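Hi R.,

Here are the chain sequences for the assembly we discussed:
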Amino acid sequence: MESRKQDNYFHQLGKLRRKPLAIAGPCSAESREQVLDTARQLKELQVDIFRAGVWKPRSKPGTFEGVGLEGMAWLQEVRHEFGLPVATEVAKPQHIEFALKHHIDVLWIGARTSVNPFAVQELAEVLRGTNVPIMVKNPVNPDLALWAGAIERLWAVGLTDVAAIHRGFSSYEPSQYRNLPLWQLPVQLKAQYPNLPIIVDPSHIGGKPELIYPLSQKALDLDFDGVMIETHPNPKAALSDADQQITPAVLGEILTKLQVRSMPDQAFVSRAEELRKKIDRADREIIEALARRMRVVEEIGKDKKENNVAVLQLERWNEIFQTRPQWAAQMNLTPEFIQELYQLIHVESIRIQTEVVKKDA
Ligand code: PEP
Ligand code: MN
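And here is the predicted structure of the full complex:
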């Protein structure tokens, strides 16, 4: 189902820049002055696409829900005055109609919309026959199929200029992030669709200015294609997402600091091949050792059964969880890592012994 087009709109913009694609602008368009002032500064930074939300999905009613249609004219002014492509979020078919009528260059589907296949399908139907570039944020919950499904719905109506935006996943667990990055999900999406550009949105993942640079660099290290960063001339006064927006000046520093990792050369490839062989050998040894361990576990299980001894022996459990992290530390491994690994190993050992007990009970 993947669009075969290798060079879609987003790849081409990135190539022109010969740097990661940079999308920036305020969370929300608030006034004509704020929009034009931000765009003027971002143009100087050679940002590729100017973003601004005009219809804002807010958790609570009664908060600022965007300026709506009025903002379209401001975005058009940005296009004309600075020659900057402009992007906005669309959540309803009517938003798309307005956006197309006002020549908005790029659309994006937000996290609260990509979560709903009915809504995405409805948007896809309106887009049939256009070829407007469109970005799909991951759904709020960590569901890869739902994210991929939203993208496939757009491909299915003939859109080829599609990109994914990684904006993190909501969680109830306390964490330093506003939305957990769970990098394995975008990486899996990339593995599934190698031609699909992926852009990181460190503003919504981190929720705070100091996380924007490390999250962006991490994404580039994972070979993402670009960044989308919320930028406001006076972040503290922003009407939405005031805690995470940065000034154009700070954005400039971040964009200069970001390093694109280069394509590996032949010497690197052969060194990596040698090292990977060593890793393969080590992994085999680990798995052989685990198989050996589990055979002994089974033997003890039988013995426990014959002697009517309970499978779980607490002192033994405690001893394992004390000694293994200590051994790990002596071998320069992180004790927490080995602790976690042994949780899994111990659970499997208990499962094996429970099976033995059940077998001819
Ligand atoms: C936004 O980009 O301002 C936005 C509302 O993002 P998300 O859909 O990721 O919450
Ligand atoms: Mn926002």
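The CA atoms of residues 28 and 52 lie 5 Å apart. The longest helix spans residues 266-306.

Let me know if anything looks off.

Best,
T.
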